[in-house]
Amino acid sequence: MKPSGLSAASREQLSRLLREGPPLLTAGDAAGALGLTHTTAARRLAAWSRAGWLARVRRGAYVPVPIESASADIALEDPWSVAAAMFSPCYIGGWSAAEHWGLTEQIFGSLCVMTAKRPRNRKPVLRKARFELHTVAAANFIGLKTVWRGGTRVQVSDPARTLIDMLADPALAGGIRHLVEMLRSLLHDQPKEGAKLGDYAGKLGIGAVFKRLGFLLQRDHPDQGALIEMCRQNLSAGYAKLDPALPADRLVTAWRVWVPATEAREVRS
Length: 269
Known about the structure:
The chain is α+β, with helices and mostly antiparallel strands.
């Protein structure tokens, strides 16, 4: 549907809203910007959506349709800024943060969002953009950087925090093989970030992180002596799997971690 004509008054209101509003528009935004009641603002947004000037993302939330677009059936221009508005408090993490910081050349098809919310749908598709939502306690929002996406501030985990999240849940890396590559990239190309790993691991206090990190460092990066020892001093009771998504048939007792046979090379238990 091509956008239809608007009255002069409606056009002026829409122009003001698009100048002053965030990338994701809600009735609350419109009411504040235009001096309308919440109900009137909601109706105005719905009308502009029906006319093809706004595209509905979910109930009560819209994004502008670019003036050059021939249809309101558009993809999200910037999923990062929409995520910041929809899933706040949140940060971009996992594979998406790894892509941002150049830790991987792998292309992932969805945006990884770490949020304090507990959404029912953890894999929403909004305007052709795929999101994958993971819950993290707001108290653990550490190691974050602010980046600007247009006029929107978006938080993203820094490289070291990104790796710590992945060590807590290897699925955030797309699996252990990707995690191994990203850890290598971090330690070799961004050594200052590598020095933060122990600090973040200590603050978050997740036992499986020390087990996985210690194992991988001893196997692949034996020069990281101080960090290896820090992991050893913080080993918790019990055992963890190197990658919960994979079968594990080898116990490396030194690190209290179960690993697939293909990952147990050159490590003495």
